[in-house]
What does this fold into?
Amino acid sequence: MGFESLTEKLSAAFKKLKNKGKLTPADIKEAMREVKLALLGADVNIKVVKEFVARVSERAVGIEVLESLTPAQQVIKIVNEELCQMMGGSVSKIKVSSSPPTIVMMTGLQGAGKTTQTGKLAGLYKKQNKRPLLVACDVYRPAAIKQLQVVGEQVGVPVFAGEQGESPVSIAKRAVEHAKRHGNDFVFLDTAGRLHIDEVLIEELKNIKQAVNPTEILLVVDAMTGQDAVNAAAAFNEAIGIDGILLTKMDGDTRGGAALSVKHVTGKPIKFIGVGEKLSDIEEFHPDRMASRILGMGDVLTLIEKAQESFDEKKAAELEQKIRRETFDLTDFLDQLRQFKSMGSMDQVLSMLPGVNASQLSNAKIDEGALAKTEAMILSMTDRERLHPEIINGSRKQRIAAGSGTRVEDINRMLKQFEQSKKMLKQFSSMGAKRRPGRRGF
Ligand code: GDP
It folds into this structure.
């Protein structure tokens, strides 16, 4: 996830407030000057920055000293709330039609990631036990149809393609009829893109819109293009009227400008974000969670949801029992690591933890090969050792190291990690009991 530089600059601005018992207007002014520079540096729209800083300053000047929070913490809380507000406040979901199918028209400029995201979204709905249909309306690039067919196959969703020479409007109409006949409750139209917004493109989108009356028009924009993405969103919205935005490539080193400005500039919320090239790399957009990520406060809830999604539910329940009964052993640890691997890349997962930022990640050199090593070590143990790691003494360590092609230090490190994981899982498990997000529904 991008934003590292913004996160660092904001924490530097707040650090200066930390040791102050009471904040003077001058302290706040100075901090706000730095916040403003940080946001401008992140390519946030200037008008948005000005309004943001004015609102935060107004609220911050009047703050009382509370027992529970220091003045600096209160300023951070206000910034957090205002950042969240700036990105739309709460989650915006895709509208669902009361008479199926729900028709989602995907639009966007070429290269924004439209075809990929269309496939990802359909896959997401399939996981929710829906019956989506993908529709190839980009008839100008034969490769686009093929690309949609490939992603459709990967996510297990059928693709409706038109006949040679058929117009996008006719394809869209026939696809909706097809969906009705075949019980598809969601239809995702992958429309054509262009390098720039032009009359022909807009005309075609308007015609499709008129022909099928979509439930939702989503615009796919590339976060890496910063203010260009915001301008494109404003132009699309003006020309055809959009309902929401899917912001892609949030995994790249985007400075954050698009995510932070687009709602304010266009009035339309970000509904989903694309966070990687894999078809599972899509997330519902939560302004509050994004705000805390930006402030370096981590995003433990998304982490837990990801864990729940990729974990086998029965296994997860067993695991919870084991953690409760304190019988979590090395075999479970290995199981856990393997599941962790299926959640995404290590640094993607770690970046959601509070206090972990990109520079720390690169210093820590997350080595995915380490997982393979851990696997080898655990597989070289006897059943009793896996069940009772406390019996692993010096000579056992030497035997395991020799068996797994590792060193005794590696065994020590792994056992330490095992203990830490046990502790962390215990924390997660008690958090889960307090606030267990239900299965995700969109
Ligand atoms: P389209 O022309 O808008 O349909 O764009 P494509 O779907 O063909 O995507 C263009 C490129 O962006 C492809 O190489 C995709 O793999 C890549 N892409 C799409 N979404 C994401 C994302 O969320 N993150 C990253 N890193 N790459 C993405």
User: Anything to note?
Assistant: The two ends are 23 Å apart (CA to CA).
